[in-house]
Amino acid sequence: TPLDRIRNFSIIAHIDHGKSTLADRLIQVTGGLSEREMSAQVLDNMEIERERGITIKAQTVRLDYKGHVLNLMDTPGHVDFAYEVSRSLAACEGALLVVDAAQGVEAQTLANVYQSIEHDHEIVPVINKIDLPAAEPDKVKAEIEEVIGLDASHAVLSSAKSGIGITEVLDAIVERIPAPKGDASAPLKAMLVDSWYDPYLGVVILVRVIDGTLRKGQNVRFMQAGTEHLVDRVGCFRPKIEQLTELGPGEIGFITAQIKEVQQARVGDTLTDAKKPAREALPGFKEVQPVVFCGLFPVDAADFEKLRESIGKLRLNDASFSFEMETSAALGFGFRCGFLGLLHLEIIQERLTREYDLDLITTAPSVVYQIELTHGGGYIELHNPADMPEPNKIESISEPWIEATIYVPDEYLGSVLKLCQDRRGVQKNLTYVGGRAQATYELPLNEVVFDFYDRLKSISRGYASFDYHQIGYREGDLVKMSILVNEEPVDALSMIVHRGTAETRGRGMCERLKELIPRHLFKIPIQAAIGGKVIARETIAALRKDVTAKCYGGDITRKRKLLEKQKKGKLKMREYGSVQIPQEAFIAALRMG
Ligand code: GTP
């Protein structure tokens, strides 16, 4: 396809403003799918993604419209996947900004628009849901101009649901979004935008060709990985697969090259011709590394092999999570896994539970600490609080810090600032745009990974948006806090905390565990301790024997029911010494409330 006939774009939208519905309409109107095929939303294709309203794997669709080729690039929508988003955006020249005509501009949209502007995108405002009685397109136009600073006079008015304004959107894409630039005679340069594992095709690689041509049968070199592969398929999604013989400059499509593992196809890598390579790789490549680690253990020890297999399968499709075997005194065999963030962790955990039918215990998530050993013993990286060296062997501990940008409407600013303060944040900047504040904070990653995002959303009623990047390691006064249940340390609950917040955290943990652990026939002390020193304590009172006896004494069926219930419950509990701790306790205890 000649360059001037290509348009590459993504869609920016706040959750529920109609991104998926609009994408489906664009596909339908340009003839990609029939009405019946449309009934299942095409772009969000995983159940979990749909339920959580986020897209994890980028998908792209090629549309034909009035002699043009339009490539719609879907982007993942969560901070954990910020790097993937940046590569998807780098593959486009423009974006549709979809805003709900009744809701107006939301904070999250703002953060995404700024990213898109940073990539020099041409942004086409689309005011959607104009069919709603509460729609106020003029007010929303004014808001787009005031709050974002974009000219909204030519905004397209649409109803993705009723099919209004869809061809206008397509026309706007063709007319307003610039064609890509590229040099067909230069050596091949293509950006690896995404990769995933397909059971039939093997690893599928999504590419955006910058210069040169990518052909079936060509030997390509992955410049960052330093590997070479023979391209055996070239094609695009409509959204069904269509095979092609080549992709020219400016084009987006996929290739397969008999690659077995997604780890070999890293997002941001540059593909070039092995025989006639480009001199330099494309800028912006970043090795994504897991930042949050936790242990995953089967509730039933007999499930260990099944867990190993299932994790292996998930890993096939996700280069950004890592795992290695771990043994725990209390939990037996399991895996230490690394994730891009807490949401990433939750998604993997949920998939293991749901798709692979595993009951899991997740230990306290932890970031990676750098420990300097005494007597010139060098540095170690600590992925697991259980491996923390004795205090006398530690010279210093450093923890990763991030710079966070938070957008929030004025009315919630006070609570947001307090939250940042409570999490040891250092304010760097505070500005106002429209009725919204933009706060920049430096924060220890450790204070953010647990539940910062959830807290932020709840104190701002969903309006705050949050984006971050890592800014390196800083020394901190950090200590290991152990949790003792009935005098026994529970290694899965030990965590590294800042000395200044240890007591509050310890007290919170003990209080929550008191709620989460059922009563036993004896009294159970729950303690948080640093070294040998107890800093918080709660006690679970003993169950009075006669209470059970009285309640259930005479009634055999009720007694049996109770026993069965207990048996079932047991499957989801772990025994620590003589105490049973329910599975949910491990993660729930960490939520700081
Ligand atoms: P996420 O996938 O959760 O990010 O949401 P989204 O932005 O993709 O929104 P989606 O397309 O799933 O639409 C959200 C809801 O709005 C759905 O119930 C749609 O049916 C509805 N919707 C989408 N477009 C319109 C529209 O033009 N008018 C009306 N009335 N409803 C719409």
Helicity range of the residues?
Answer: 25-40%
The largest β sheet comes out as: 8 strands, antiparallel
How far is it from the N-terminal to the C-terminal residue, by CA?
A: 55 Å
Number of beta-strand segments:
33
Strand coverage percent: 25-35%
User: Any idea what the radius of gyration is?
Assistant: 27 Å
Strand order of the largest sheet: 11-10-16-7-8-15-12-13
Q: Mean of residue pLDDT? A: 85
Give the count of helical stretches: 16
Structural class: alpha+beta
Broad shape: globular
Bound molecules: guanosine-5'-triphosphate
Instruction: List the uncertain runs.
Output: 46-58, 547-554
Structure explained in plain terms:
- The radius of gyration is 27 Å and the shape is globular.
- With 593 residues, the chain is an alpha+beta fold.
- The protein starts with 5 loop residues before the first strand and ends in a 5-residue tail after the last helix.
- The strands form 7 sheets. An 8-stranded antiparallel sheet has the order 11-10-16-7-8-15-12-13. The chain has a 6-stranded mixed sheet with strand order 2-3-1-4-5-6, with helices on both faces.
- A hairpin with a 2-residue loop joins strand 27 and strand 28.
- Helix content is 27%, strand content 34%.
- The chain contains 16 helices and 33 strands.
- The site of guanosine-5'-triphosphate (GTP) has 17 residues, from helix 1.
- Guanosine-5'-triphosphate (GTP) binds at residues 13, 15-21, 44, 53, 128-129, 131-132, 159-161.
